[in-house]
Write a structure and sequence with these properties.
The structure holds 2 protein chains of 2 kinds. By secondary structure, chain A is mainly alpha-helical. Chain A has 3 helices and no strands. Chain A has a single domain, classed as Helix Hairpins (Orthogonal Bundle). The longest helix of chain A has about 30 residues. Chain B is mainly α. Chain B has 2 domains: about 80 residues, Up-down Bundle (Four Helix Bundle (Hemerythrin (Met), subunit A)); about 45 residues. The longest helix of chain B has 26 residues. Classes of the chains: A mainly alpha, B mainly alpha. The interface between A and B is large, with 74 and 88 residues.
Amino acid sequence: MNGPPLEAWLALSAALFAVGLFGVLTRKNLVAILLGVELMANAANLNMVALGHFRGTPFGQAAALFSIALTVAEVVVGLAIVVLLARTHKSVDADAPSEMQG
Amino acid sequence: MTAWILFVLVAFGTLVSAVMVVRTADLVRAVLWLAASLVATAGLYALLDAGFLAAMQLLLYTGGIITLMLFAVMLVRRGPEAPTAGLIANPGRALTASLAVFGLVAFTVAEAGLPTEPGAGGSPSAKLLGQVLLGPLALPFEALSVLLLAAMVGAIALARRKDPEE
């Protein structure tokens, strides 16, 4: 077995997470921010699958399955909020809703 | 050796499409790049002997989430021009923060002394995965179904158009 070691998988996952974080920090559009969140969740899933593979346990894949389902729920509610904000504020800019600002 | 070549190729594809997701100005294109990144991740799962998970990734992420995202982009667009993703002008600090997170995680991974060989049990089959989900993980599995129901009801309640007479 001379495939990539666990470090390579975890480094790839960390890189994907960093790219997703960069997306969340640099986007103003709410849908685009959700895209970055998706990338980060995807990186976390990859982490769990890789760890489960190298530890020889099925719980890594089970955790990733749970995480996928949680992400689907998160995206559904997140997009519903975006659609609601687009209707009430006529904008999907993250700076548009500012009623709670002191 | 073949595993290394495949890993490098698919990992490169995943990373490049992830960077395109965060740097493309056109929102529809960014969503499609996300689809490419998620498909490549399914390839990575296949490389980890997680065939069932790769199938679920394709079905739920690229089938479900990308469709949902595209619908949301179409729903919230204003006017005939292409929806833009609103990049901020000066991403220097965001770049620093992302690189810091990557550096911290990479340093920890390098120092942790992790196993280099796959575990003795190998990757679980879909059958074993099902037995785990309905055996020791039965309670979180059931809780997840309640969560999905709550998310569905919540999404409908949030995005529903109010009746005009209200």
